[in-house]
């Protein structure tokens, strides 16, 4: 472990730059994990981070201490006041890791996929990833103009889900959906109104569930490609659900049907 006291250390400066700039994160293909939970999940699935940065005061916590000892050759120990200048979360988080954003190889589409079109709110994207991982989704496919999956806010909301599903970004979803249908899969588009009841729609085969943003919903071209349009039945007077909540409802209706079969 190396103790650092200067904010001008190159590795500290890189972490600060990645935390501050979505453009730099995308360009470098890197992200910053905050807190021992996210760092631990990453380490268990992918191994050593590029850099581990711990606040001195956080070394009293067993999980932080164990991670810095496990990756001692990559660990920087910094004064808590300096750590506070880096972290997006409060200084009490105590641990940051710079890692390469995992890029899955091009693989055939899975039997249970989630498509996100134009979902720009980072909290919603992270929550959807978390629900997808819990539901057993194999691949999450994001269109251009979605929030960057590896941004700090998305990672925070995902709570480690990023490392349990394949995440494919910047994908033209209408072409992806057309190919999925050609391979025998069904593309199920969620719409606020006018679709078949979610609970009356068979969702037990190869399914790709498509969710749009809260304002515009799904694009006409993706709606045209989809096999089915479904709507979540709601009480009279309720217009719609938050996009992340709607995704969770739909995903776990898929789980319910698949478990029942």
Features of this protein?
single chain; 261 residues; alpha/beta; 60s Ribosomal Protein L30, Chain: A; Alpha/beta knot; 2 domains; five-stranded mixed beta sheet; 10 helices; 12 strands
Q: How would you portray this structure in words?
A:
The strands form 2 sheets. Strands 8-7-6-11-9-12-10 form a 7-stranded parallel beta sheet. The protein is elongated and about 60 Å long. The chain has helices at 10-20, 22-28, 36-46, 62-70, 80-86, 122-135, 152-158, 173-182, 220-225, 243-260, and strands spanning 2-3, 30-34, 51-55, 75-78, 95-100, 112-117, 139-142, 166-168, 186-190, 196-197, 207-212, 228-231. With 261 residues, it is α/β, with parallel strands linked by helices. It is built from 10 helices and 12 strands.
What layout of secondary structure does this protein have?
Layout: E1 2-3, H1 10-20, H2 22-28, E2 30-34, H3 36-46, E3 51-55, H4 62-70, E4 75-78, H5 80-86, E5 95-100, E6 112-117, H6 122-135, E7 139-142, H7 152-158, E8 166-168, H8 173-182, E9 186-190, E10 196-197, E11 207-212, H9 220-225, E12 228-231, H10 243-260
Parallel strand pairs: 1-4, 3-4, 6-7, 6-11, 7-8, 9-11, 9-12, 10-12
Antiparallel strand pairs: 2-5, 3-5
Helix pairs in contact: 1-2, 6-7, 6-10
